[in-house]
Amino acid sequence: MSPTLPRSLRRRLAACVGPEHVVADPARLLVYESDGLTQYRQAPLAVVLPGDTEELVEVVRAVHREGIPVVPRGAGTGLSGGALPVEGSVVVGTARLDRILELDPENRLARVQPGVVNSRLGVEARRHGLHYAPDPSSQSACTLGGNVAENSGGPHCLKYGVTSRYISGLTVVLDDGEVVELGGAARDPATGLDLVGIFVGSEGCFGIAAEIEVRLLPLPGGVRTLLGIFASVEEAARAVTGIVAEGLLPAALEIMDGASIRAVEASVYAAGYPTDAGAALVVEFDGTDAGLDEDVVRAVACCRDAGATDIQHTDDEGQRTRLWQGRKKAFGAMGRIAPDLLVQDATVPRTRLPEVLAEIMAIGARYDLHVANVFHAGDGNLHPKILFDRSDADELDRVERASKEMMQVCVDAGGTITGEHGVGVDKQKYMRLVHGEEELAAMSAVGAAFDPRGLFNPGKVLPEPEPA
Amino acid sequence: MRSAPEAEEVAETTAPILARARRVLRPRTAEEVVEVLAGARADGLGVVLLGGGGAPPPLAPERPFVALSTAALSGIDLYEPGDLTFTAGAGTTLGALEDRLGREGQWLPLDPAGGRARTLGGVVASGLGGPLQAGFGAIRDQVLGLTVVTGDGRILRLGGRVMKNVAGFDLVRLFVGSAGRLGVVVSASLRVFPRPRAQRILLLEGAGDGRQREGLPYAARAVATAPVVPSEAVLLRRPAGEVLVVRLTGSEPVLDAEQARLEEAVGRPFQTAADPEGWVERMAGRIGEGEGLGARHHGLPASLPERWTAWVAAAPTATLHADVLGGTLRARLPADAVDETVPHRWRGLAREDSAPVLFDSVPAGREALLERQGWGTARRGAGAGGAEGAAALERRLREAFDPHGSLAPMEYAR
User: Fold this and answer.
1) Which among A26, A21, A115, A25 is positioned nearest to A77, based on CA atoms?
2) Quick check: B360 pLDDT over 50?
3) Which residues of chain B have a CB within 8 Å of the CB of A134?
4) How confident is the model at residue B379 (pLDDT cuts 50, 70, 90)?
5) In whole angstroms, what is the distance from residue B252 CA to residue B89 CA?
6) Which residues of B fall within a CB distance of 8 Å from A422?
7) Radius of gyration of chain A (CA)
8) If you ran DSSP here, which 8-state letter would residue A456 be given?
9) Checking CA distances to A16, which of A6, A213, B105, B347 falls within 20 to 30 Å?
10) What is the rounded CA–CA span in Å between residue B332 and residue A309?
11) Does residue A421 sit in helix, strand or coil?
12) Distance from B9 to chain A by nearest Cα, in Å?
């Protein structure tokens, strides 16, 4: 018999957050059965949506008192199953914890609740001439709490870095509702361990962030966007190598391959990229306006030297959106080609990109799978996309086997199994490709320091211990 | 412990602590580090970690100890300019790295106190990369991977050498800035940056009083809130007077445009330094050599003018150095100017949100001047129980990596 929510706990939760914010009706639980990685599904006992920190603390305490695990959930846009409910768990959603508590332009800081949507903070910061740099492609939906849990990246982290660079302090709710303050911009960074740094990217396994202090940056004075069209991915990659060798530091360096271009151009998102192209490269520079035109001239020369067949660039916001269109809509466009889409995620040293891509395409061909590539070329972060139909058991099996081989290729090239999507449940099976038993044991010990009973998102990230 | 070679020559700044060490060992590999730790534990000795001797030395622990020097763990193992990453041993000096990276037109934008003589391992362990971090990101954001030996003698290979990596909990971050409390950094992989095409040092000198609204601390605030981010900005007070130093990097048109923006924000023209490298050194600088009393007083950048003014009043003869964008103020007084009232007065400068951390480099025999400092606990808006919870977490994490307290005697002077 599947476990059910104890009636007394349900009453206590309803009394705490209001009955309308406790979801236990099977039909309403359906939407919480998975996150962005839809091949895994599991219904929780219930979903609880606290409205403030006190309620959050009370909910965690009440659920943990029963020895029931808590699975934190932001917007559910994650791509590794981080917010996938664990069997017999209570999902604690942050949807109602969506207040920007403080915006401090003097210190370029903001204090927010975990349910604040990434792009909404951007809009608020903009009023003060500031911006929040990390921009995962789901930024119009994903939450800052989720970004903290996953240490999210985005196309602009080549220059700006990932989420962890921008999180200066956290108020976290740990086991049994204990509230702990970690870090803070006012605290001397030399006076203790970087508890904020280890909490960021812990994928909901340590606790739930109740308040997040983030660093903001002044808006760049100007932006220039360049689109180069190439006959092959190798040529586009050579342009990137040239740009790096020139000493340029673009905000973004994005490549999409011919398969991705054709998918976009066949969709409602058509951006006008030539469908016979082998690759498109988007280069973006931002910063003090006076230097940008020179950067563009030098990048154009790099593209031309690498064999670009067409180069467009712009400083106009509308034009910029158009040049980015193909890149930003690639995932959506893929979605219409096949019933299912697996977006893989791995990182390799940048100089190994061309050979690794060739091997990935060869693996796809060997398993008779449709593979397309979009990637953050500047930092070596690949996103091979595999199109398939989950109702075809044989194809699903081929997807699994091809994915594993792709991971191995990336690891062999000196890379890793995930650059920005996280491990969740999807990559646990690959963790031993990059970590030894000592390292896994150390991670487990760190997890236990935060969550001694293993009641936050259990069974995620770390693989099952090897049988002795 | 027997196989690791013993050190022969000794850097002057580490001499006082080395004089008290039972032995000074220079392991050449991670395995030899394991041996040193095991040997020390078997003999009931503590272990003090030493970098190249360019940093202020750690405070001498009370119990007998051996010194573990990372000097022989040096050298660049891997450097791929096209990847913008390198891997090097902990004992590699920043100077050696700067020279090698410079040949490829790249650099490591860090300027910790002590500059080129500092070791990579020491800077990683301290987590303090200097005021240049404002423009390029903190050292904790630049470290991609580490090989460490934990206090209980396990060799761990953490992270990797790729720019983005979320494969498991980020133990790299835990070790960066851990001041050797969890283990010994053996080697590190970091990201590097293209070296800027040009740089310019802007100077604004003041009368030295700093209290009037038009004083330098307020000009510094104007720089910190202007719509450009300089690579670094430092406020210095030396016997020669007060000066605000701003470093811009980029192409010439960028430097011109940013200088104009900053002058507009400050409302005064800057001077351009004739000897930029000299100022670069002063910005990174240790603020005084030899014996003396030092302090760090971190706080939010917006509170800098108030803190600065309070320090000028309380320590009129001290050298002061403030990272304008980062918010850390440092003070230093030579030993002959320190009497027993000074530590008391300096501690009195604590504010609601931040307290100074005092340290000394007064060698053996004069330590009564200053009681040993614990790790600071000042934090913003700490709720009831918040700080205790963080301390408990730190305790549990130390137990996970150094359960026998082998590294416990070490207290970094900052």
Assistant:
1) A115
2) yes
3) none
4) very low
5) 36
6) 166
7) 23
8) B
9) A213
10) 61
11) coil
12) 30
Phi then psi dihedrals of residue A352, to 5 deg = -90, 0
Residues 219-248 of B with CB under 8 A from A: 225-229
- Partners of residue B204 on adjacent β-strands: B244
Cα dist from B271 to A182, A366, B73, whole Å = 41, 65, 43
B251, B253, B256, B257 alpha-carbon torsion, rounded to 10°: -110
What radius of gyration do chain B's Cα atoms show? 21
Which residues does chain A have with pLDDT short of 50?
A: none
Which of B166, B250, B383 is closest, CB to CB, to A179?
A: B383
Asked if B386 lies within 8 A of A180 by C-beta distance, the reply is yes
Kindly report which listed range (A269-283, B294-308, B368-382) carries the lowest average pLDDT score.
B368-382
Helical spans, DSSP H, in A329-392: 330-335, 353-366
Q: How many angstroms separate the CA atoms of A26 and A45, rounded?
A: 9
Report DSSP state, residue A416: B
Residue B214: per-residue pLDDT: 63
Q: Which residues contact B112 (CB under 8 A, 6 or more apart)?
A: B55, B94, B118, B123, B126, B128, B129, B130, B284
Partner-chain contact A164 B170, CB within 8 Å: yes
Angle between the A233-245 and A353-366 helix axes, to the nearest 10 degrees?
160
The Cα–Cα gap between B203 and B219 comes to: 11
% of chain A residues with pLDDT over 90: 87
B357 is written with which tokens? 């951390």
Judged by phi (left if over 0) then psi (alpha if -120 to 50, else beta), residue B86 lies in beta
Could you tell me which residues come within 8 angstroms of residue A357 by beta carbon, excluding any fewer than 6 positions away? Answer: A233, A237, A257, A373, A375, A382
CA neighbor of B53 nearest in space, from B95, B88, B81, B83: B95
**Token pair listed for A288:** 């003090």
ipTM: 0.95
Residue-wise pLDDT for B173-206, tens only, equals 999 998 888 999 999 999 999 999 999 999 999 7
- Between the CA of residue A461 and those of A31, A82, A435, B199, B400, what are the distances in Å? 23, 8, 12, 44, 19
> Is B363 or B394 the better-scoring residue by pLDDT?
B394
Structure-token pair, residue B313: 């009043």
Could you tell me the pLDDT band of residue B14, with boundaries at 50, 70 and 90?
A: low
Q: CB–CB of A89/A29 below 8 Å?
A: no
Residue B369 has pLDDT above 60, yes or no: no
Rounded average pLDDT over B121-138: 91
**Residue carrying structure tokens 């790099």:** A302
Contacts of B374 (CB under 8 A, 6+ apart): none
What single-letter amino acid sits at A380?
G
State the pLDDT confidence band at B365, using cuts at 50, 70 and 90.
very low
Collapsed DSSP state (helix, strand, coil) of residue A5: coil
Q: Which pLDDT score is estimated for B368?
A: 33
Q: What percent of chain A has pLDDT over 70?
A: 99
Query: pTM to 2 decimals?
Result: 0.94
> Is A28 exposed, middle or buried (CB count within 10 Å of its CB: 0-12, 13-18, 19+)?
exposed
Q: How far is A381 from chain B (nearest CA, A)?
A: 7
Q: Which two tokens stand for residue A427?
A: 């990559």
Residues 6+ apart with CB under 8 A from B344: none
How many other C-beta atoms are found inside a 10 Å radius of the C-beta of residue A459? 17
pLDDT above 90 for B51: no
Q: φ, ψ for residue B311 (rounded to 5)? A: -70, -40
